[in-house]
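Response to reviewer comment R2.3. The reviewers asked that we include at least one raw input/output pair. We reproduce the pair for Tellurium resistance here without editing.
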Amino acid sequence: MAFWDGLWRGRSTVFDSGSAASNAIELTKRSPAVSLTKQGADSGNLRVNLSWRMRTSDFMGKSSRSGGSLLRNPLTLFKPEVVQAHTQGVVNVDLDIGCLYEMVDGEKGVVQPLGGFFGDLNTPPYVKLSGDDRFGSPSGETIYINLDHRESIKRLLVFVYIYDQTPAFDRTHAKVTLYPSNGPRIEISLEERAAQSRSCAVLLIENVKGELTVRREVKFVYGFQAELDRLYGWGLQWGRGYKTAK
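Raw output as returned:
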């Protein structure tokens, strides 16, 4: 099945925002996986959020620091300032979140802003994108996954890509956070410096013998979705896509 078969049906849905647990599980190279089933978090709506920040030094240089601050603490010269990326004037990067899905019955496709494939929460693929944030606002972009239909889901690959502008993963501090309906949130930071990469496979959710697990991937590639497809053996057909103007 080609990826465009997952066209958004336009169903109106009220989302569950997930738990407000204050603690978090960080997936790293040393601890790359967690079981949602063992955490008791494999039901309800799983919220997957993408947010990012940019270093001010990437745009204005270290000369923006005040002299008084440097005299009090000269080591700040070597510590880049971090600001929230929320305006197009500061952030010339458009990060998007997407999700490749494979159902138990063999159905495959993609949910992403590009092409307007926003998915559906109540029918296959049980994955829905809430919107397209083009400027890195604090709320970021969010994908919802209906885990009440987990028995129909084989695997989900959540990825991030730069739709337009120059590659800037090396200047972008992106984070993907999962908010289960129960238990602590799960965080994955994209801290590797992949200057020329345009896409990154962030995490893989798999249903193995009834157990739902989340595994950190963080694999950068120089191409787009087709290259991620080849890397994980999805076997979809890809073509050039565009966003609609806002």
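The chain has one domain: 3-10+23-58+78-232. The first helix runs from residue 57 to 60. Further pairs are available on request from the corresponding author.
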